Amino acid sequence: MTGGPQILHVAGLHGCGFYKRTLSCLSSLNLLFPSRLKVVPHEFQDRTGFREWLVDGGFRDHFKTDEGKSHVASPVVWFTKSYKEGDPDPADIEKYLGGHDAALDWCRDFVKPSSESATDGPAMVDDGHKADHGYEYDLLVIGGGSGGMAAAKEAAALGAKVALCDFVKPSPKGTTWGLGGTCVNVGCIPKKLFHIGATMRETMNVDGSFYGIATPGAKVDEMGQLAPTEMDMHWGVVKDNIQNYIRSLNFKYRVRLREKSVNYMNKLAKFTDPHTVELVDKKGRTSTVTASRVLVAVGGRPSPLACEGGDLAISSDDVFFMDKDPGKTLCVGASYISLECAGFLAGMGKDVTVAVRSILLRGFDRECSNKVGDYMKDHGVKFKNEVTPAKLEKEGEQIKVTFSDGTSDVYDTVLSAIGRHADTAKLGLESIGVETNPKNRKIKATFEQSNVPNVYCVGDVMEGCPELTPVAIQAGISLARRLFGGSKEPMDYVNVCTTVFTPIEYSCVGLSEDDAIAKYGQDGVEVYHREFLPLEWSLSSVRQNSNAFTKVVVEKSQEEKVLGIHYVGPNAGEVMQGYGISMKKGLTFKELTDTVGIHPTSAEEIVTLSITKSSGEDAAAGGC
After folding, report:
1. What is the DSSP letter of 561?
2. pTM assigned to the model
3. Residue 372's closest CA among 510, 503, 198, 499?
4. Residue 133 annotated as catalytic
């Protein structure tokens, strides 16, 4: 490529699905190839204004082709010679492209492999790295979580000289942990293990007797049934076993870094210049280390509860280490972290309340999120809606919480899960000019590269990155291969599967129904859906109202491209993973329903969908 980016303008109506689709495609290319393309949108609120500008105002008369001079529909797309702010300048028109179809055809041609595009790769800035750079390391990784370790090991395997420094700052409650980052120590792993235990207990208590499972000597009643078996779950036992397992992982991570020839340093890092980092060990001794390239992968930490007495609350950094049984618990927030913690605590038999400021699971599909909430209510979790804690105060061994609506209650534990922020405040990023988002302290980056060319970032610390462990791992590996392996492949952040491990699990990939409608318009989207009773719940009379649910969101077109798949039910993560591959390959609804399901499973419900939401038919499934 030579010269600057192509300047492409797209004008259309606010509510037009064709305009939204065209703008979405072009904007995605703009994001991926900022050095090759600049997209300038011009949105009109009504058809009259659009026509007055395009037709009556004579803008189209400046196009050189007859097709352009007769264009009347939304959208209209054209090239200009230069980029200018404000209203479109007809004097700057270079070439008329066309409408929706022509723009999408151009997008397809733009991304087709060619001798030029095959070698371009991501538009990364030259960071000045040379074989004889003179620094101690080719790469210094700050942060020993999933993404940092993955990048360090991959770079070392590709021949780079790599060091990794990691130092866990204690939580406000004094909790600390070992190598491995949030996921291993205070996130995915302990959360999932507690969830598994709570689910086992519920299964035994609710379903066990219907499968004939009982304690020795149990009697069958006159109806031929067994009384439910009430199982208890001991906090101390499960907590200690989980922590012992995690400590074994901490040790294995250190061994693997050593095996990969990565120099691990248990020290706190701070930039003094773009290539120099000051290190402080646990005894306060300082040293410095230099590197040609530096990768920031420090992840995030929970945001504190900002109310009077908020320091009495614990966070997800603390709950998995509690020696004392949490007892009656208030979970503050409606994020997936809050709901997952509320779910496993309730599943263990605790008295649990969730304080919800606005909506459950912001950013996820609204219908599915509400189904998760309804299930949790039916299984003993209490919700206080449209409230926030106004004050926390000690009342003996308990904590009295006064809410914003004037009500109050006392709890043994208050767990705050209201959000997270990047752990970059004391890294010294501002001293070297790295741009961050002041609201969440995340680093602004393009293709994991900050505005300081030799400073990179992956994982939760990067602005706009999904806060998921597998994303950080893949991004770290992808970046290492580009920096030291000659790869041109960027990290693909689109169509990433995820699962919320609430008492009824929720997994998804692609767009929510709400986001699809916002992107393609109400008339541009169709939804296939179904409610069903999972086979494993079918014997229990207690489960008869606990339906699972799935839906597939498609683009309303001849191909019916699948935009999103959603599933609420047992084993959601296991169900969804394979569909992620299909989504990356451009799955259509016909291809989905042409697939033969595995019977009898919950997963087959997705490939046998036939009822559309627009038909108004009952989505409840019956029979085999």
Report:
1. B
2. 0.81
3. 503
4. no
